[in-house]
Amino acid sequence: VALAGTDPQYAGAASGVLSTASQIGGAVGVAGVGVVFYHVLGDAGHVSAYADAFTASLDLLGPLALAVAVLVQFFPKPESAS
Length: 82
Hints:
The structure is a single chain. By secondary structure, the chain is mainly alpha-helical. The protein has one domain. Helix content is 70%, strand content 0%. It has two helices and no strands. The protein has helices spanning 11-41, 47-72. It is elongated and about 55 Å long.
């Protein structure tokens, strides 16, 4: 679906760019959430500190997921095959 509007001659390059962007986005996302988690966790080793760090991570991920859900609505719609 993401590559539906791509010219066939550029399909390979577009697929590579899409795959690369997806991999980079995933890596940066995991790293960002990890930074928040371990920043909140700090040097504390007790169970409640882990719960607080997990909550802080979810406080970051919730609004980001909502923003992505809204932005996806603005993606170009694929042409119907009629």
